[in-house]
Amino acid sequence: MTVEGENNGAISPQAKVKSPEASSYSWYVLFVLVIVYILNFIDRQILSILAVDIKADLGLTDADMGFLGGAAFAVFYALFGIPLGRLADNWSRVKLLSIGLALWSIMTALSGFARNQVELTLARMGVGVGEATASPTAYSLISDYFPKRQRATALAIYSSGLYIGGGVSLFLGALIVQSWDAAFPQGGPLGLAGWHAAFVAVGIPGVLVGLWVATLREPVRGAMDGLVTPAHPAPFRAFASDLSMIVPPFTLWGAWQRGPVALVINIVTAAAIAAFAYTMIQLTGNFPQWSAVGFGYYAVFSWASTLRAKDPATFKLIWGTPAFICTTIGYGLVALAAYALAFWSAPYAETVLGLPKKELAFILGANGAVSGFLGVIIGGRVADYLRTKNPAGRILVVILGVLGPIVPIGIGHTTDNATLFYVMNFLAGMLGATALGAAAATTQDLVLPRMRGTATAAFFLGTTLVGLSFGPYMVGQISDLAGTMVDGKLVGNLRVGILSLIAVAPIALGLLIAAYRTVPKAERTIVERARDAGEPV
C-alpha cells in the first residue's frame, strides 16, 4: 500500500534496460547543480560572518545566535524536506528545484529587512523551506544522470558547492558589510546597516539562476539502474497528503485514521517530547531552540508513523534498516561538528583572537572553500574505490571524517597563534569533508530508485535535526555557560564551546562501526526486503 493517490512505483520486467554511461550533458547538469549548491550555502552561511554585527545590533547572546544559525533554519529545512523529497520522487525535479531556489533567494533578501530576532527567525525559516528542495532534487537527478560506479564521485562534486559557497559567503559578507558601513556610517537607505545590505545582495542573484535551472532536461527516472519507474499520476495530491503528516493538528487526525491505538501512541509521544522540551527550556532559558527542536522531532515521528502505514516498503528500507539509520545519524554527528565550526570559526577569530574581519573572512573563506572541496572530492574518489573492494568500504571514509578533525580542533582552538589556527582550521575542514559523499552514496544505494528523494530527505534529517540543529547551538550555549559578566553583559567563552565538540566523536564512531557491519547485508537484500513489505518489484 502507498500514500493515497500514489502510483506504487511498480517496476515491470519489461522496464529493465541496460545501464547507460554518463554523458557530457550529465556533467553539464552536475555543473549547474554545483552552482545552485554554492548559492544555497552562501545564503545559508553568510549569517556566520555577520554574527558579531547582528549580535551587537539586536542585543543577542551566543545561544541566540546559535539558534539562528541552527534550529531556526534546520527544523524547517528538515521537515519540509520530507514532503518535498517525496514530491521530488513524484514530480519534475527540475521545476521543483527552480521554484525552491527562487523562494530561498527571496527569503534571504528579506532577511536584510529584519529589525529584531523574531523577524530574522521567520526569514530564516523561509530560507529553510526553500532550500529543502535542493538536495532531494539534486541527489535524485544525479542518481539518474550517473551510473552507480560514479555516483559517490558525482555526489561529492555536487557537495563541493557546500564548501565553496560557505567560503565565498564569508568573503562576500565581510566585503559588503565594510563597504556599506564605510559609505553609510549612520545607516544607509531605509535605515539598513551593513549586515542588512549583505543579505539583500546575496539573495537577489538566486532568482536569475532559478531561470537557468528551469532549462535543464528531466532524465528518465531509474534508467541508470535499469529500473525505469513510471510517472506518478497525482504528485500534488500525494504531496498534500505528505504535508499533512508533519503539520499539527493534522497529525492527530492522521493518527486517528490509523486507529485508536495509533492516536494514543501519537499523543503520548507528543506529551513526552513536550515534557522534554519544557525541561530543557527551564534549564537553558532558551524557548525558541527547544520549542523548535521539540516540534521538529514530533513531526518526524508523525511522518515516520504515517509512512509505515501507507508505504511500508519505503519505511522498511529507510527507518527499518539499521544500516541506513546508523549511517545517517553517524554522519549527522560529523555534520554537527562541521556546521558548528563553519558557523563559529569567524566569530571566534574575531572575538577571541582579535583578528580583523576582512582578513579572517578572506583566509577562512579560502580555507573553507579549498579544504572542503579537496576533502569532499578526495573522500568521494576514495569511497568509490573502497566500494569496489568492500560493500561497506565507504563507511571507512565516514569514520575518517569523525576521527580526522579531533586533533586539528584541539590544537587550533587552544593556540593564540593566528597562523596555526588557520592551518588547523584547514585540516579540520578537509578531513571532516571527506565523509559527505561517502555517507550520501551509501544511503542512496540502500533504497530503490523511486525512494531516492525520500531517502535523501531522511538522510538530511540526520544532518539537520542532529547536526545543524544542535551544532551551532551547542557551542553557543556552552559558551554562554562558561562565560563571564563584563559591565553587566554576558561575554561567552567560545573556546570552551568549540572544544566541547570533541566529546561527540565516540558516539559517532560507535554508530559508524555498527553501519560498517550491517551495510553489506542491507544492500544485498534490498529487493527481497522491499518485496516482503509489499513492493511489486
Shape: globular
Regions with little confidence, pLDDT below 50 for 5+ residues: 1-17
What is the number of helical segments per DSSP (H or I, 4+ residues)? Answer: 24
Strand fraction: under 5%
Percent in helix = over 70%
Mean pLDDT: 89
- Give me the secondary-structure category: mainly alpha
Main sheet?
A: 2 strands, antiparallel
Separation of termini?
13 Å
Q: Which series of helices and strands comes N to C?
A: HHHHHHHHHHHHHHHHHHHHHEEHHH
Task: Please state the CA-atom Rg, rounded to the nearest Å.
Answer: 22 Å
Q: In total, how many beta strands?
A: 2
Biggest sheet strand line-up: 1-2
What does this entry look like structurally?
α1 (24-58) runs antiparallel to α6 and α1 (24-58) packs parallel to α7. This protein has 24 helices and two strands. The chain is mainly α and 537 residues long. The model is unreliable at 1-17 (pLDDT under 50). β1 and β2 (489-491) form a beta hairpin. The protein has a two-stranded antiparallel ribbon with strand order 1-2.
Identify the notable features of this structure and list them briefly.
single chain; mainly alpha; two-stranded antiparallel ribbon; globular
